[in-house]
Amino acid sequence: GTVPAMRRPRLDNSVRLFTQGYAWLPDKRRALGRRTVPTRLGGLPVFGIEGPEAARFLYDEDHVRRAHAIPEPVQGTLFGKGAVHTLDGHEHRVRKAMFVALLMDDDRIAPLVEGVTAAWDAAVPGWVRREQVVLFEEARVVLTRAVCDWAGVPLPEDEAPAVARDLTALVDGFATGGPRHWRARRARGRREAWLARLVDDVRSGAATTPQGSVVDVVARHRDADGEHLDPHVAAVELLNVIRPTVAISWFVAFSGHALVRWPRYRKQLAGGDPAFAEAWAHEVRRFYPFAPFIGGRAPQAVEWDGERIPAGAMVLLDLYGQDHDADLWGDPYTFRPERFLDREREIGAFELVPQGAGDPRTNHRCPGEQVTVAVLSALAVRLARLDVEVPEQDLRISLRRIPALPASGMVLRVHGTSG
Ligand code: HEM
To answer: Mind telling me which residue stretches traverse the membrane in this protein (predicted)?
Structure first.
C-alpha cells in the first residue's frame, strides 16, 4: 500500500531539481565515484540512478510509481493535470492504450510525415524571401500546422505562429521559475480552454472532426472507470500529442547545429539514404541534451545498488547521463551517426533512453518515439538540402539551461534548395 508520505507532495520547490541542469547527476556520480547517487531535496531523499539495469529497476511499479511524484510546477506547464504521465497500474494501461493506438502505427505515422514535409516545402520560398530566419522558430510553425491538420484540430492559417509559440512555451517553462514559467502556465490555460471547447463541440455535434482522427479518438476514449474523459483531461491529452510533436523543433535546431559543427555529414544526409537519416536522428537524440531525467517515488522501502531507498523517496533515472555513459557509447561526447549503422545488434530497449526505456505499451516510455525518428529523419534530410549561409551567431548550448538550445536558435540565410 501507499505510505502517508506519498500523499503529500513535498516537491513544491521542485525548480531546485533543475537548477543545476543536465550535469547535476553526472557531476555527482563523478564526485562520488559511484553509479548511484543519494542526495536530498527539501528534506526528501532523492536517488539518482543510471544504466540499463537501473532503468529496468525503475520501470518496475513495485519500485517506483508516478502518482504524487510529478511536481505541480511540471504538471502545470509541461504535462497538464490528470495526464497519462501521472497514472499507475491499470488506469495507466487503459489510458496508454489510447496513445499507443494513435501513435505507434505506421499507417498513421506516414501521413503525419507527409504533412510535415509538405508544410516544410511550402515554407521554404518564404524563408528565401527573408533576409534570415531562426530555424527553431520556423520548424515549430511547420510542425504545428502539420500536426494540427493530422490530428483533426482546426487551425486558421494565420494562427499557427501564435499556437506554435504557446506549444514550445509549455516545454520552455517547466524547469524554471520566473517569466518563462509564468508564460508556460498562461499558454497552458489558453490551449487547454481551446481544446476542451473543441472536445465539447465534437461531442455535441457542434463541430466535426474526421472519423478516427486524434481528436475523435480522444473525445470517444473510455478510461478505466468506463467513463469518457472530462473535457479538460481530454484537452490535456490532446496537448500531450500536439505539444511533443512540435517539440521536435528542438531536434531540428540541434540538427542544424550538428551540420554546422560537422559539415562533412551534409552530403551524406542530403543524399536521403533512409538508414543514414535514421542513424542521424538517433545520434541527435542521444548526443544533444533535451529530457534531463525521469522518475517517481518508491511506494515501499527497496534496495538498489547497495542503497536502502526509503518509502516515499524520489528515484530519478539520469537520461542525459545514460546517453553519455562511456560503458554504453564509445566516445560518448563525439557526434558520430555511424555508431548506429555499425552496430552488430539492435539497440536494446534499456540502452538508448532520450525518450525513456523498456516497453512503451506497458510502461511510461514515450509512445512518440517512432513519430520523432520518422519526422526528424525527414526534416534533417530537407535541412541538409537547403542552400544556406550561416551568419555569425552564438551557437553555444548551455547545459545549465533546461531545455537546452543553441543560444541563437540557429539563424540561417536560406538561398533555396539544392539537389
Ligand atoms: C513520454 C521524451 C516526443 C508523447 C515521454 C517521456 C520522455 C519523452 C522522456 C517519459 C518517459 C518516462 O517517464 O518513462 C520525448 C522527447 C521527444 C518526445 C525528447 C522529442 C520531441 C514525443 C512525441 C509524442 C510524445 C512526438 C506524441 C506524438 C508522449 C506521451 C508520453 C511521453 C503521451 C507519456 C507516456 C506515459 O506516461 O505513458 N516522452 N518525447 N512524445 N511522450 Fe514523448
So the answer is: none
SS3 409: coil
Q: Which residues contact 287 (CB under 8 A, 6 or more apart)?
A: 254, 258, 323, 335
Helical H segments across 294-361, by residue range: 319-322
Helix, coil or strand: residue 62: coil
- In sequence order, what are the residues at sequence separation of 6 or more whose Cβ sits closer than 8 angstroms to the Cβ of residue 96? 84, 360, 361, 362, 364, 367
Grid coordinates given for 356: 525513456
Say yes or no to pLDDT of 294 above 80.
yes
Which residue pairs, CB below 8 angstroms and at least 24 apart, start in 135-138? 135/252, 135/253, 135/256, 135/383, 135/409, 135/410, 135/411, 135/412, 136/249, 136/250, 136/252, 136/253, 136/405, 136/406, 136/409, 136/410, 137/164, 137/409
Instruction: For residue 198, give the C-alpha cell.
Output: 473543441
CA angle at 352 for the pair 347 and 358, rounded to the nearest 5° = 80
Please tell me whether 148 is known to bind a ligand.
no
> What's the length of the chain?
419
Burial of 280 by CB count in 10 Å (0-12 exposed, 13-18 middle, 19+ buried)? buried
Total-model pTM: 0.97
All three cell numbers of 93, joined, read 494501461
ipTM: 0.99
The ligand 1 site (C-beta within 6 Å) comprises 84-85, 96, 99, 103, 240-241, 244-245, 247-248, 290-291, 294, 354-356, 364-368, 371-372
Given a cut of 90, is residue 299 above it in pLDDT?
A: yes
Edge-to-edge, what's the strand order for the sheet holding 293-297? 37-41, 44-49, 314-318, 293-297
Q: What are the residues whose beta carbons fall under 8 Å from the beta carbon of 176, sequence distance 6 or more? A: 15, 18, 402
Q: Is residue 209 a contact partner of residue 202, using CB atoms and an 8 Å limit?
A: yes
pLDDT at 12: 54
Which numbered atom of ligand 1 lies nearest the CA of 360?
Answer: 38
